[in-house]
User: Fold this.
Amino acid sequence: MRLCLPSARVGIRAGFNGLVVDPCIPGNWQGFEVRRQWRDATYNVTVKNPKGVQKGVKSIQLNGKPISGSVPPQPANSVNEIIVEMG
Assistant:
């Protein structure tokens, strides 16, 4: 099933220092994908929910590297991959 929702509805929003990724979803969702344009860069966000939780982030990767906290702004015109594991 595909849904069209504003990214803030599923916990992805612009913050002062970075892109905040804090998903809050129904426990029966296995995950979701969102494409977000922010500060002239593209962010492809994949959220995985292997334990069926509704909230909580276990890990975040930005372009294959682990990060903690908000996703920092990336260069203009870049395409970036964010993988979030809930848990």
